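Hi support team,

I submitted a single chain yesterday and got back a structure, but I'm not sure I'm reading the token output correctly. Could someone confirm the output below corresponds to the sequence I sent? I've pasted both exactly as they appear in my results page.

Thanks,
R.
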Amino acid sequence: MLLDTRDLEFLKLTGLCRYMPTGLNRKYDSPCFARRVISNLQTHRLIKLISDKMSYKLTKKGRGILEEIGITFLKDARTNLKKNAYLGKLKNAHINVMLHLAGVNVYYETARELSGVSCGYMSSLVLRSDNSMKVLSSAKFLGILKLELEAYIPYYIEDRQSWMFPVFEREMYRSQVDSIRDVKEIKLILFGDTLEELWLSITPSGESVDIIDGRKSFYISLEEIGSEYLLIPLGRDGVLQLKLLTLCGYKDRISTALRCEENNVKGLFECDGWKDGMPFIIGIDFNIKRVLRGLKQIEKYDNRLKPVVACLPFQKSTYIKILKEFSTIKPLVFPISLNDIYNVFPETREDNFKIEPVPKKRGDYIEVPEVSYSKTQIEVIEA
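Hi R., thanks for writing in. Yes, this is the structure output for that exact sequence:
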């Protein structure tokens, strides 16, 4: 078979992630994760299914194919599949996949390379493969996302039991961000299975919180770090949210589409526009701190106003629960339909992925010899 761009992207992502989670075709919409693509790569022994059937890994043959076109990845140290480090790599892989599907180049190898880049990502998997950076093995941040003049530090939060060493974490990611010359602000991105679970995981439960050897819950850690943070769920919804965040001026484009007038009221710094006498806050980034701050500003300005928080459909129910509990002024939570989102941002809907043969450095195409295997020889793709 001729290796095409779908095969190449899956191989590259697998090389970056070390362990590529199974079942991606059910979570994300991409031709790269089609069952047929993965089956072909397995059949030709370019990837292999790990014994626990939770992930794929590049084979020696698969690495060789990438090397033919000048792409190399450091080999990962053998990982114990029963340890938390393995599960951590699978979650890290999901973040890499989501950012890739959002149109972000996830293959930067150093933070310094992100200088001057408007949109790019360096995975912590790259850092941890560097013997000189072994100190990062205890850090939980998953990489550095550069968007214009801001750096975003992603974390995955499992539940309320998730913890970190906040001072150590801040020192570690700042030591990397400091090498990016044009970053003006650092924010965090918190990933989780759903928005509601995420929010519950970073709010106090009323129970006593144990602090052992400097380890602290994410709720306490976020307070100590003090940075703004965004909440993003895994899966298709999270990919759409990320796609919008990568688009420069997306809030202005939404305000214009909603026919909002420009906000000129002094003191309403978080207000994104006005319509029919109502102040609008574009809350698609799910920056709860910013939204609550904006609502307080509006209440202080005029508590008779009815503010509107515009969001994506999947964010509405969680916004309503949070604002009901934490905001003294009750806004209207307005979900923007997906059709309207796609009309305003057609680039988020269009599939620009071109399926074509992959050329070698010298110009001819990579051909993987066709080999016949019996059914018992072919590893089974997950249902």
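A quick pointer for reading it: Residues 1-83+357-383 form a domain with the Arc Repressor Mutant, subunit A fold (CATH 1.10.10). Let us know if anything else looks off.

Best,
Support desk
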